[in-house]
Amino acid sequence: MKPVKPEWHNEDQIEAAVRTWLVSQRWQVQSRYEQSGADISAIDQHNARWLFEVKGYPATHNKFDGVAKSEGSKRSQRRIWFIEALGQIISRIKDPDLQIGIVFPDHPTDRYFQSVALLLPQFLRDKLHLWVFLVDQTGSVRILSPDSPHFEDAVHAKLS
Questions:
Q1: 69 — alpha (psi -120 to 50), left (phi > 0) or beta?
Q2: Please, where are the H alpha helices in 92-159?
Q3: What CATH number did the domain enclosing 103 receive?
Q4: pLDDT at residue 74 greater than cutoff 90
Q5: Which one of 26, 128, 151, 154 has the minimum C-beta count within 10 Å?
Q6: What dihedral do alpha carbons 136, 10, 29, 82 form, nearest 10°?
Q7: How far apart are CA 117 and CA 29, in angstroms?
Q8: Which helix (DSSP H) or strand (DSSP E) does residue 89 occupy?
Q9: Integer distance in angstroms from the first to the last C-alpha of the chain?
Q10: Containing structural domain, residue 91
Q11: pTM of the model
Q12: Does residue 115 sit within a domain?
């Protein structure tokens, strides 16, 4: 079998979609080469500083041989990536006013990232200034703010 090209939900594609969305919202987004640590560093329209950790959705096929991955493998990988995103972004908090976001694909047939994000206690998201962003295949964004019990379309979400 020949190698499989990257799927829309891999980390690089999701990061590019979020960067595009942030710029469209008039945020100042640092290039990957200007920053260190987090996947995205940005300043919003209210001059608040943000850091984002981005994760993809597990590939449906192995990269090199094209063999389909097992469902168990994908379930395990997505759980590890969620926990890893939390750990990475929390370890980068150096300023109590910093806003932090974790970004995942909004997969049409697997709502794992949405479900597990909603399980994070609201008081904890509020204390950490933790936002969760979901990006779908078209680049549309849904956001779970620290003080909200549910995701909102980015058009309606109030950031900062």
A1: beta
A2: 112-119, 122-128
A3: 3.40.1350
A4: no
A5: 26
A6: 80
A7: 25
A8: helix 71-91
A9: 48
A10: 11-31+38-153
A11: 0.90
A12: yes
